[in-house]
Amino acid sequence: MIHASNFASFAQELSIKACFFAPAAGCNLLPIVNPRPTMKLLRIDASARLDGSHSRDLGDHFCAALRDAVPNLDITVRDLATKPTELIQDTTIVGFYTPGDEMTSAMRQATALSDQLIDELQAADTLLLTVPMYNFSIPAALKAWIDQVVRINHTFSYNGTAFTGLVKARQAYVVCAYGAAGYAPGEGFEAANFLQPYMQFLLQFLGIDSIDFAAVQATTADEQTVATNTTTAKAQIDQWVMRYA
Ligand SMILES: Cc1cc2nc3c(=O)[nH]c(=O)nc-3n(C[C@H](O)[C@H](O)[C@H](O)COP(=O)(O)O)c2cc1C
């Protein structure tokens, strides 16, 4: 639970990573022979560029590597550039805060896309978000999706004092592209990075306790710099995939 009055400790609280394997009560313990990893991955692409996008390239690299490591891999792609998410409207918001049995047909219609996007989100156990920096933050296309899926009693709850994230996925990977350099922690442009801290906070708020970021910076620099930075980001992504090997 996240206490509204104590957001400072909330990131720390949720960053604790744990993995428990417990037999169901009354079950005999059977040896597990060569368990085959399974994954239901929801990939969300946010770059407006369909060709030459560095964030999509990192996402493609991750998915290709995962296909080798995870035999039972099921990927759903939500491309926010080719299929933009409608912005929420007045009736959408009223619908979000109206109990199901009191909703009018107009409210149901206005919240239908949110229902669909949340169903898609809740079917995933792992998320991949490919995110370019636009004007020091995330693209509007991604914000429109976020406004549809961050919904009380569906993806988070609030009991008057504390928030609880309700998203079922336990792991999120976020791959980013920045036109300039210097956005990493400790670097000169860190204060202008409203992309990574925002995505970190949001995903934690939704209840995802393990969040990894990889980025290619300086995508507008010379070819050699871009190639070097891309290689470094892909090596980091390869390390993530090793977890499933
Ligand atoms: C609308 C727009 C705004 C941008 N704003 C920034 C910015 O604030 N800071 C930055 O470093 N790069 C900025 N860029 C550059 C992109 O972050 C860079 O081109 C990145 O590679 C885009 O991701 P993509 O290659 O996946 O399309 C901007 C690009 C666009 C199109």
TrEMBL record:
rRNA-binding as UniProt keyword: no
InterPro entries in the record: Flavodoxin_fold (IPR003680), Flavoprotein-like_sf (IPR029039), FMN-dep_NADH:Q_OxRdtase_AzoR1 (IPR050104), NADH:quinone_OxRdtase_FMN_depd (IPR023048)
Cofactor binding notes: Binds 1 FMN per subunit.
Highest rank taxon of the organism: Bacteria
Domain Flavodoxin-like fold: from-to ranges: 39-240
Alphabetic keyword roster: Flavoprotein, FMN, NAD, Oxidoreductase
GO function terms (MF aspect): electron transfer activity; FMN binding; oxidoreductase activity, acting on NAD(P)H as acceptor; oxidoreductase activity, acting on NAD(P)H, quinone or similar compound as acceptor
Pfam families: Flavodoxin_2 (PF02525)
Catalytic activity: 2 a quinone + NADH + H(+) = 2 a 1,4-benzosemiquinone + NAD(+); N,N-dimethyl-1,4-phenylenediamine + anthranilate + 2 NAD(+) = 2-(4-dimethylaminophenyl)diazenylbenzoate + 2 NADH + 2 H(+)
E.C. designation(s): 1.6.5.-, 1.7.1.17
Cofactor(s) it depends on: FMN
Residues engaged in binding FMN: 47, 53-55, 133-136
Entry similarity comment: Belongs to the azoreductase type 1 family.
Protein's UniProt name: FMN dependent NADH:quinone oxidoreductase
Organism: Abyssibacter profundi
The encoding gene: azoR
